[in-house]
Amino acid sequence: MRATLIYGAGDVRVEDVPDPRLHEPTDAVVRVLRSCVCGSDLWPYGAKEHAAEGDRIGHEFLGVVEEVGSEVSGLGRGDVVVAPFVWADNTCDFCTEGLQTSCRHGGQWGAPGVDGGQGEAVRVPQAQGTLVKLPVGEDSALLPSLLTLSDVFPTGHHCAVTAGVGPRTTVTVVGDGAVGLSAVLAAKRLGAERIILMGRHTDRTDLGREFGATDVVAERGAEGVEKVKELTGGDGTHAVLECVGLKPALETAFGVVRDGGVVSRVGAPQYSDVPMDGGLFMRNITLTGGVAPARAYIEELLPDILDGKVEPGRVFDRAVGLDEVPDGYQAMADRKALKVLIRP
Ligand SMILES: [Zn+2]
How far, in Å, from the CA of 57 to the mean position of ligand 1? Predict the structure, then answer.
C-alpha cells in the first residue's frame, strides 16, 4: 500500500510500505476513507532533523473495517469507524477515568511498528477499545465533520471542558487555527454567550464568527491583551483557551484571564518553562489542559454532528489525494490552507 513518511523538515514523501495485517488478536485492519494533516504535524515538518529512514506519520483517520482479530467484538467487516489520535484499550483504570491518552496498553500512531493515519490502510491495535462505529455509509457527506472526532473537535472540547466553560463563563480563544476554531465551536456548544476569538487571518476568524465567536481581536501581544480588557470592562474573561502552543500565546492567555479564572492549553507546547509568577498567584489563576483524551468525548460529540447541529468539518478548506499530501503539508506550513483533508 501507499503511505506518508516524514524524512525531515520540509521532506514528506508518499511511498510503498508493507500492507497492514493482523498481528495480535486485538487488532483490526481499517481501509482509510479520509485522513488529514494536523497543525501538530507541522512541528516536525518545520524542524525535524533529516534521517535516512522516514517515519510514518498521521494520527487522524476514519475508514472501513476490513478484518478483525479473534478477540475483537462489536466490530465487523464493512463497519465505518473513526479512530482517536491515540489508540487505547478503553478498559484500564486510566481509560475508565476518561484519560485514554494515558492508557496502560495504548500508544501512538506512526510509532515504530505502528501504521500512521496518512495512508491507504492502518493496522489498529486495541481495535475494540480504540475504534468507534459510525452509523453512516462510505459516501456520507458528514465524513469531514466525523473525521474531526479524531482530534480537533474533541481537542477544542477538552480545552473548553477543562477550563470550566458553561453558560455563565466568558471565554477568550487564543489562536485561529483548526483547534482554535474548534474550541470556539465547543465553547458555544457548552453554552458560552461571550466568546472573544484572538486571530488575525480574516478568512479564519470569519468562520470563527459562524462557529459562535462574538468578538474578534486581531491585535497580538500587549495590544491584543489591552483590546480584550477593553471588551470586558478591564477584567478579562473567566476562561481562556490557548490553542497555539507557543510561549507568546500563553503569555497573552495569562494577560486576558480574569482574576480567579482558568487558562487551558491544548496547543502542543513548544516551550519548556511556564511563566507563572507571583502576580498570577496573587490573582488566583489556574492553568490546566493538556493532551485531549479524544476517545473519551467521541460518543458525546457524535450526535450533534449526525443531527447537523454542528459542522466542525468546515475547518477543512482543501482536499488532496494521497500523492498530493506533500503539497498539502506545504500549503498548511505557508498558511495557504487552514486544514487539509486527504482522500487516499
Ligand atoms: Zn486503557
Answer: 23
Q: How far is the CA of 184 from the centre of ligand 1 (A)?
A: 29
| pLDDT of the residue at 63 | 98
Max CA separation in the chain (angstroms)? 61
Closest residue by Cα to residue 160 from 265, 291, 299, 50: 265
pLDDT score for 275: 87
Question: What's the whole-number mean pLDDT along residues 332-339?
Answer: 96
Question: What is the distance in A from the centroid of ligand 1 to the CA of 24?
Answer: 16
Give the β-pairing of 61-68 and 80-83. antiparallel
The reported pTM is: 0.97
Tens digits of residue pLDDT in 239-254? 999 999 999 999 999 9
CA dihedral sign of residues 334, 291, 306, 181: negative
Could you read off the pLDDT of 76-87 as tens digits, one per residue? Answer: 999 999 999 999
CA separation for the pair 37, 329 (Å, rounded): 7
Residue whose C-alpha cell reads 475508565 in the numeric block: 96
SS3 277: coil
Q: Which residues contact 162 (CB under 8 A, 6 or more apart)?
A: 262, 264, 288, 289, 290
Q: Cα(295) to centroid of ligand 1, in Å?
A: 11
> Ligand 1 center to residue 96 CA distance, Å?
7
Could you count the other beta carbons within 10 Å of the beta carbon of residue 66? 16
Residue 268 confidence (pLDDT): 86
CA of 172 to the centre of ligand 1 (A): 33
Handedness of CA 216, 218, 220, 223 (dihedral sign): negative
